[in-house]
Design goal:
alpha+beta; 31% helix; five-stranded antiparallel beta sheet; globular; Creatine Amidinohydrolase; single chain; six-stranded mixed beta sheet; Creatine Amidinohydrolase, Chain A, domain 1
C-alpha cells in the first residue's frame, strides 16, 4: 500500500464515494487532478499518487477495480509505485481511453470531478464525443470526503503543526527594514524540510499607515517593511500526508499600526472567533454558520471580499463552502478553513486572518491554537511549541 495510507482507509474512501454514486445513478466517477497547487489532491486522495508534473485521472467504477490514467509523457514524472491502484494506463489521449473504457463496459452516466476547472480540453472533447452522459460531480464528490477519519485528522493536525510553526518563525524574524521575502524564506525552508515539498502557497497582504491593503500578493524582495506597516502573512500548506491547512494573523510594525480601521475589524474578528466556537457543530447548516460568524462584520458595515470559509482536505478548496444560502448540514469531523476577509467601505483597508477548524459535538475546535489578536513581533513562541522546529 503506497503513501502511508492504510487499506482500511482506502476502502472507507471508496465506499463513501460509491455510496454517493449509487444514490445519483452513476456507473463510474472520473476524478481529475493537475499539478496546479490545490488541484492535485483529489487524485492523491483516491490513489496515493502525488502529481509532480502534468495531470492524471482516477476512474472508480461502481463495481470493480479502479484505474489510474496518465498521459504518455508523464511516465517518468512522479513515483508511480506509490499508488495502490494496480491498473496504470499511460496513453497518448487519456480522454479517449476513458471514453473507450466506458463504452466497453456499457456505461451511460459517468460523474466527473473537475469537469469545470481541472479536466483538460482535449480530454473533455474525447469524452464528449459519443453517447456518454457526463455529470458534473464536484460537490457530490467533496461531500463524500468531507468527514475526515481519525487517520486523516492525524494528517490534518500535523499540517497545522507545521504551518503554525511557520507563523512563529515569520513572527520571530519580523521587523522594520526586512523584506517580505526575507521573512518568508525560512518558513518555506522549514516547510520543505518537514515534507511539504512544493505544496505551499504563501502570500502576504501589506499596507502602510496601520492598514493592510486588500489584495493578496507574492512576497516582495525589493520593498522593505516600514514603521507603521500592517503585514498579514497568509500561510497555506499541505504537510507530508497531503492535507491542506491555512493559518494567518496580522502583525503590526509599530508606528501607526494597527490603524483605527484595523482595530475595528479586530473587534469583529474577536466576535467571529467566539461565534465559530459555538456555531461549528453537527446539525448546523453552512448558511447558519456563515450568518453567525459574519454578523460582527456586517453590523460594522464591512464587506467580505472572499468566501467566509470552506471545507478543506486533500484539495485546497472543497465543498461545502460556508456562505449565504448553502444549506449543507455539518457533521462531526468535518474540517473548515475560516477566513472572513473584512474590507473597508472605501476598499483600501482589510483584515484577513485564517484558522483551520474541526467540527465537534461541543462546537468548533481551532486547531492552530493561536490567539485571535494583532501581533507586534514581541510575542514569544509558547512553551509547548518551542521544540517543534
Amino acid at each position: 500500500m503506497g503513501a502511508d495510507v492504510s487499506p482500511t482507509e482506502v476502502e472507507r474512501r471508496y465506499a463513501n464515494v460509491r455510496e454517493a454514486m449509487a444514490g445519483d445513478g452513476l456507473e463510474a466517477v472520473i476524478v481529475s487532478g493537475s499539478e496546479y497547487s490545490g488541484f492535485e489532491g483529489a487524485v492523491r486522495y483516491m490513489s496515493g499518487f502525488v502529481i509532480v508534473h502534468r495531470y492524471a485521472y482516477v476512474l472508480l467504477p461502481l463495481e470493480g477495480e479502479p484505474s489510474i490514467v496518465f498521459p504518455t509523457e508523464a511516465r517518468y514524472v512522479g513515483e508511480h509505485r506509490t499508488t495502490w491502484i494496480e491498473e496504470q494506463a499511460f496513453v497518448d489521449a487519456p480522454g479517449a481511453w476513458l471514453r473507450d473504457r466506458a463504452r466497453g463496459r456499457g456505461w451511460k452516466r459517468v460523474g466527473v470531478y473537475g469537469l469545470d476547472y481541472v479536466l483538460t480540453v482535449r480530454d473533455y472533447r474525447a469524452l464528449a464525443d459519443g453517447e456518454l452522459e457526463l455529470v458534473p460531480y464536484d460537490v457530490e464528490f467533496d461531500l463524500a470526503r468531507a468527514v475526515k477519519s481519525d487517520e486523516e485528522l492525524a494528517s490534518v493536525r500535523n499540517s497545522v503543526r507545521i504551518n503554525t510553526e511557520g507563523f512563529w518563525m515569520f513572527l520571530a524574524g519580523f521587523g522594520a527594514g526586512r523584506t517580505e521575502a526575507e521573512l518568508l524564506a525560512p518558513c518555506e525552508q522549514y516547510f520543505v524540510d518537514q515534507g511539504c515539498g512544493r505544496l505551499t502557497m504563501d502570500m502576504v497582504l501589506v499596507g502602510e499607515n496601520g492598514e493592510a491593503e486588500p489584495e493578496f500578493r507574492i512576497a516582495s524582495r525589493n520593498r522593505r517593511i516600514q514603521e507603521g506597516d500592517l503585514v498579514l502573512p497568509s500561510l497555506e500548506i499541505a504537510g507530508p500526508g497531503g492535507h491542506w491547512v491555512e493559518v494567518s494573523r496580522a502583525i503590526a510594525a509599530g508606528g501607526d499600526a494597527p490603524g483605527p480601521e484595523a482595530r475595528r475589524m479586530l473587534d469583529a474578528y474577536e466576535e467571529y472567533f467566539e461565534a465559530a466556537r459555538s456555531a461549528l457543530r453537527p446539525g448546523a447548516s453552512a448558511h447558519d454558520v456563515h450568518r453567525a460568524v459574519s454578523k460582527g462584520f456586517s453590523d460594522r458595515g464591512y464587506e467580505l471580499g472572499h468566501v467566509t470559509g470552506h471545507s478543506i482536505g486533500m484539495t485546497m478548496i472543497e465543498f461545502p463552502k460556508i456562505g449565504e444560502g448553502v444549506e449543507t448540514e455539518l457533521a462531526e469531523n468535518m474540517v473548515f478553513s475560516m477566513h472572513p476577509h473584512a474590507i473597508s467601505a472605501d476598499g483600501h483597508a482589510c483584515l484577513y486572518m485564517q484558522d483551520t477548524w474541526r467540527v465537534t459535538p461541543d462546537g468548533g475546535e481551532a486547531l492552530a491554537g493561536l490567539p485571535m489578536r494583532i501581533f507586534d513581533g514581541s510575542e514569544s513562541r509558547p512553551e509547548d511549541r518551542a521544540g517543534a522546529r
